Amino acid sequence: MIRLRDVSYTYPKGVEAIRELNLDVSPGEALFVLGHNGAGKSTMLRLFNGLLKPTTGKVTVAGTDTRKARPAHLSRSVGLVFQNPDAQLFKDRVSDEVSFGAKHGAGTVDATERFERAMELLGLESVGDTNPYELSLSWRKRVAIASVVAMGSPILVLDEPTGGQDAEGTRVLTDLIIDTRRRGHGCVVVTHDVDLAFDCADRVVVLREGDVHLHGDPMSVLGDPRLGEAGVESSTMHQVSRGLGLDQPIRTVDELEEHLRSTGGTTP
Fold first, then answer.
1. Alpha-carbon torsion (192, 195, 201, 202), positive or negative
2. Which of 74, 178, 235, 265 could cross-link to 198 by cystine, CB 3.0-4.6 Å?
């Protein structure tokens, strides 16, 4: 669905944010992008739907060169949710915001069904008649996400969706990512939340100063000792496994409980 080939992007003031990046994003998978601030993550997302055009190289979305299409057209294939929801919200009611996305989307399901599904997935039914700006930042993020989910784009792109979210909000986002994959759609998530990546990702890309530093499955990447070079910590389960002196990382809390039970709660 999205293909980047030898893509670089340099801002007008001369800052090179992305360097010769090669990457594919496919429907049905969750790709997580990690890296410290300034690593090029948000720039890469804006290349995905034509908000930025590559300085060199080529970006295609569903076979279309992004330099030859408007972002409004590309958004039917790639729905992008900004880190700051206030950059997207403009309606006076939550339901109107989500309905606008449903009416202007391109999903195969009808607009009413996409609207109802997005409201339910993001837990917004009880605030449908509320002005989004009367809600907290975490809830405004949910509204912005729901408005893009309602479009039905084959690829959903989320920029720091868990920022400011409580445990319930993170659970809602986890369920959304799982549902997106289940329906055969793709999901790209830029985040500092390593544990969310460990739980939900099919692939993880770690950027460092505009380059791909690490790329692979979450179990391998999120325990790689080179993560620290990119300003990223290993996942909690990897840290716990190392603390227990295990050669292979524990994947789940259930596995941890079983290990402690089998060893009598002792470490090697």
1. positive
2. 235
Helices (H), strands (E): how many in the chain? Answer: 10, 10
Left if phi > 0, otherwise alpha if psi is -120 to 50, otherwise beta: which for 216? left
Place of tokens 């445990």: 167
How many whole angstroms from its chain centre is CA 218? 14
d(CA 246, CA 40): 34
Amino acid in position 89: L
160-213: per-residue pLDDT in tens? 998 888 889 999 999 999 999 999 999 999 999 999 999 999 999 999 999 999
Kindly state the helix (H) or strand (E) to which residue 81 belongs, with its residue range: strand 78-81
Residues forming a β-bridge with 159: 190
What is the distance between the alpha carbons of residues 124 and 41, in angstroms, rounded to a whole number? 29
Paired tokens of 135: 């809600």
Tokens linked to 259: 């290990």
pTM above 0.85, yes or no: yes
Tell how strand 186-190 and strand 30-34 pair up.
parallel
> Residue 108: which of 154, 72, 70 has the closest Cα?
154
Cα(first)–Cα(last) distance of the chain, in Å? Answer: 47
Rounded to an integer, what distance in angstroms lies between the CA atom of residue 111 and that of residue 152?
9
Contact assessment for residue 113 and residue 102, using Cβ atoms and an 8 Å cutoff: no
Among 189, 3, 27, 24, CA closest to 108:
27
